[in-house]
Design a protein that fits this description.
0% strand, Gate_dom, 212 residues, mainly alpha, Nucleoside transporter/FeoB GTPase Gate domain-containing protein, transmembrane helix
Length: 212
């Protein structure tokens, strides 16, 4: 059931949505030391919390521990954005795009943007939307398929693979592909995967079926 939204609420919600996109999208990471950037605020745990090689059970536990701050921060900020109407505004402005593209409502946009930076933020905010009744079980399945493939693709690609595109061969030539093209291909196949799940959900998942 859709909520009616008045002009004042829509304006405030739109401003909140814009700030959410900037915050989770990494657009302000170089502004004022990154105090308005999610990835900068989560930071990294100190080296003394890590074990050599990261192969022990202790190392796995400590790695899992490092996920807690980012999840808590993401959920806290999404709750703030929701309070100021960001999800309502996102539903109004972005549903015409996301509904035909992947079959999910526009209020998934904040979580979608967060998932390009952090798998933890993406999954926790998607669960928040489901728990709050903002998306259905069917929409959660589709959205999860989008997030699962190439999770946090902006962060992982730019940090790990993009530098390889600058390496030259013996003739001094670099790979014949740009960073933008590579990211576009990744995003395209994430959308493709979400639509495969969309077809599966439509055919095999019953309307009244819920999460176990």
């Amino acid at each position: 059931m859709k909520k009616e939204i008045d002009t004042k609420t829509l304006i405030i919600g739109t401003l909140s949505l814009v700030f959410a996109i900037i915050f989770f999208g990494g657009f302000a990471k170089d502004l004022w030391g990154g105090i308005f950037d999610f990835s900068k605020l989560t930071g990294q745990f100190p080296e003394w919390l890590k074990t050599s090689g990261g192969t022990s059970a202790k190392g796995g536990f400590l790695f899992a521990l490092t996920l807690v701050p980012s999840v808590m921060l993401a959920l806290g900020f999404v709750a703030i954005f929701e309070h100021y109407g960001a999800l309502l505004a996102a539903s109004k402005w972005l549903s015409p795009v996301l509904k035909p593209l992947m079959g999910i409502p526009g209020n998934c946009s904040i979580s979608l943007i967060a998932s390009t930076q952090s798998t933890d933020a993406g999954s926790s905010t998607a669960k928040f939307l489901y728990d709050e009744g903002q998306i259905t079980h069917h929409e959660l399945l589709i959205f999860s398929a989008f997030q699962f493939s190439a999770g946090a693709f902006l962060t992982n690609f730019l940090a790990s693979f993009a530098p390889l595109l600058l390496i030259t061969d013996k003739a001094g030539a670099v790979a014949p592909v740009s960073i933008a093209m590579a990211l576009g291909v990744i995003f395209l196949f994430k959308v493709f995967g979400a639509n495969l799940m969309r077809l599966y959900v439509k055919k095999f998942v019953k309307e009244n079926e819920v999460a176990v």
